[in-house]
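Run log // design_07
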């Protein structure tokens, strides 16, 4: 038994039926596209919330922790503030352990680096035996720029207060 309504090439539809069929096809395509987009957008937050957003900072060995402490308390020439306090004017939580790394580069020396998510980095060479800290030239330049900025902001506050 065959039906006369089966699709056959060359079957012609009247104008109203053709418009109705095209409207249905476009509506169906839009519905599937929107559904696909919703599923994709809905899945992203669930995947992000499955694990911790920040990984805990690895614990430093005692000598590395001492090297970090020496770098944090070091003051560059011309600055009355220790490095960690100067950084506090520009970065949130400069004492956070995850921002500091210490890599042994000699018997009693470490390369200590303060790094932020925005890419800012300050490196120091620390000798534990002599307790000497040397900031890299780039770190000296950046810390000096922070000091100058802080001094200008302080002078502007004094002028505004008068």
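design_07 sequence
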């Amino acid at each position: 038994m065959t039906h006369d309504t089966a699709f056959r090439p060359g079957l012609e539809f009247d104008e109203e039926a053709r418009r109705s069929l095209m409207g249905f096809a476009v509506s169906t395509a839009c519905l599937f596209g929107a559904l696909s987009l919703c599923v994709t957008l809905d899945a992203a937050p669930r995947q992000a919330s499955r694990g911790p957003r920040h990984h805990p900072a690895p614990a430093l060995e005692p000598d590395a922790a001492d090297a970090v402490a020496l770098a944090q308390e070091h003051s560059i020439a011309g600055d009355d503030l220790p490095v960690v306090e100067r950084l506090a004017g520009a970065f949130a939580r400069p004492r956070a352990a995850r921002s500091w790394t210490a890599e042994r580069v000699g018997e009693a020396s470490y390369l200590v680096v303060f790094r932020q998510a925005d890419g800012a980095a300050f490196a120091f060479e620390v000798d534990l035996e002599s307790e000497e800290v040397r900031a890299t030239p780039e770190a000296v330049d950046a810390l000096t720029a922070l000091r100058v900025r802080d001094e200008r902001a302080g002078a502007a506050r004094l002028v505004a207060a008068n």
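The chain has a mean pLDDT of 78.
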